[in-house]
Input
Amino acid sequence: MENGKLNKPFEIELTPDVAQGIYANLAIIVHSSSEFVLDFARMLPGVPKASVKSRVVLAPEHAKRLLMALQENLAKYESQYGPIKLPVVQGGKTYVPPISDFKGEA
Output
């Protein structure tokens, strides 16, 4: 409840072209003091350049809400289907592919 008003349900429109989704296998996240920018890109084998397919700009509060929603949904997924396994390297750390000399355009 905010300012004495109940939160009312709202509708979300999902157009057929957006409903198909965009495949991305790379996310680049940057932030400033006022926003988080999430670029979702697709890297293909043998292609030296990743192509950004979608950009989402969020206020810090919404970025934190997204994090919480992802954590909740990952927990539900893993309770139903089992743990999601990530590759590990020596020392038991989770493998994160290196991205160096990253160049992009806004």
